[in-house]
Amino acid sequence: MNNLSDVKWIRSFVAVVEHGSMAMAAAELGYVPSAVTQHIGSLERVLGVELLVRRPGSRISITAAGRALLASAGPLLRANAEFADSLRSISRSETASLVLGTYATAMQYLLPSVLKQMRPGGLLPELSLREMETPDALPLIRGGALDVLLGYRYIGGDPPTAADSLSVTLIDEEPMLLIAPAGRALTFEECVAGDWAIGNQLLGDRRLLRQWSERLRFRPRVSFESTDSNCLMTLVASGLAVSLLPATVVAAGIKRGEDVQIVAVPPGTPRLHRDVLVVTRPTFRPPFLDSFIGLLRDALGSAEELIGSRVDDEKGPAVHGTS
Question: What topology is assigned to 96-323 in CATH?
Answer without folding.
Answer: D-Maltodextrin-Binding Protein; domain 2 (3.40.190)
